Amino acid sequence: MDSCSACVVFDESLTGYDFGPSHPMNPVRVDLTMRLAGQLGVLDGGDSPHGLPLVAAPHATDEDLLTVHTPELLEAVRRSSEDPTAVDARLGLGTEDNPTFAGMHEAARHVVGATKEAARLVWEGEYLHAANVAGGLHHAMPDRASGFCVYNDVAVAIAWLLSQGVERVAYVDLDVHHGDGVEKVFWDDPRVLTVSLHETGQMLFPGTGFAHDVGGPEAQGSAVNVALPPGLTDAGWLRAIDAVVPPLLREFAPQVLVTQQGCDAHRDDPLGHLMLSVDGQRRAYAALHDLAHEVADGRWVATGGGGYAVVDVVPRAWTHLLGVVAGRPLEAGLETPEDWRRLVRDRTGLDAPLRMTDGVEPRFDAWGQGYNPDTWLDRTVQATRQAAFPLNGIDPHL
Question: Which Pfam families match (predicted)?
Answer without folding.
Answer: Hist_deacetyl
